[in-house]
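Dear U.,

Please find below the material for section 3 of the report. The protein was modelled together with zinc ion; I have listed the sequence and SMILES used, followed by the predicted complex structure.
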Amino acid sequence: MSWNDIIGQSRAKKYLQRAVSEQRIAHAYLLWGPHGVGKDALAIEFARTLLCQTHNAESCGVCPECRKATMLQHPNLKIIFALPAGEKDTSGGEEKMKTDVQSEVREQMERKALNNYFHFSIPRASVINIGSVREIRRESSMTAFDAGKKIFIISDAELMNEASQNALLKILEEPPADTIFFLTTSRKELLRPTILSRCQSIRCDALLDDEIETGLKEREHIESKQARLIAQLANGDYSRALDLLGEDLIHLRESAVNFLRAVAVGKPVQIFEEIDFFLDSDRKVSEQFLQIMLLWLRDAMLMQEGKERVINVDQSESLVKFVERYKGAELSATLAVVEHALDLLRKNVYLQLIFVSLAIQLQRILLHEKNS
Ligand SMILES: [Zn+2]
């Protein structure tokens, strides 16, 4: 990892690089912006640069300090995140943590080390509790024998409850020497203004689809077609893109196209055969299915209008057929119908109902002009 491995975020990157090269480093930084755009990744790279033995503006990546920092096992680099209620509430620290939580934490730390864009989500963890902040105070007050900077990254800092925020504020009011705090958040309005005012604020932007696509190709070695599809579904959020890597999107897309075909020829049995496999599962799959259908229909519409840029490049043949067949259909209306279905899905409307109504409305739109 180096600054070059950070996806996009050139403004935030420049700001932090300049702080290092000019040696004007603040006690506390707030990295804020949408979810999954690399706020933790920026903080970790900053930490690595400061800890590197070369003391350059760029971490060398090979010295022992860099290696420990890369594995997130450097004693002077701590990442704090939400833990299940009760954990670390006592000052007992890690030995008091339940074994299952402990192994989950270890596993997620490893994943974070392998990919700084990985987003922590420990089951049942919704709060950064006071115990974690007390530990920061304890560790930051200890004078290290090996002099050097200490960096604390508080990931999703808005998850600090009131007691934790108060405790952190006390630390920030009298910051210990050589200690740097990074607070990362996608919801800074939940942090106390007094905390915000003690941090250098750095805004991070949503990532562009192209940036995510390139990131997936270069960092995760994903082939073009899939990278492009995922980038469109990720909505500027690289952590979400990583989650989507594990999903069978190509299969879902096939189902979405078959669903549209079945709808158009009006075969109700076939319509439900296509979606049967996920109707009983997680609503998340239904959402992905609808989003993929939306992208596909958008491509069909662009093609109908004679525009070039389509997402499902590998689908051009079946898109051409579809557009040919429903020449007169108002495809923009199909987009609105699918968007409405997505809306209902988020409002927890009964799944079968959503899909029946979607099928009927799509059929009307697709067949209307054709029959007249
Ligand atoms: Zn180094």
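For the text of the report, you could mention the following: The chain has three domains: 3-205, 212-244, 249-371.

Regards,
Y.
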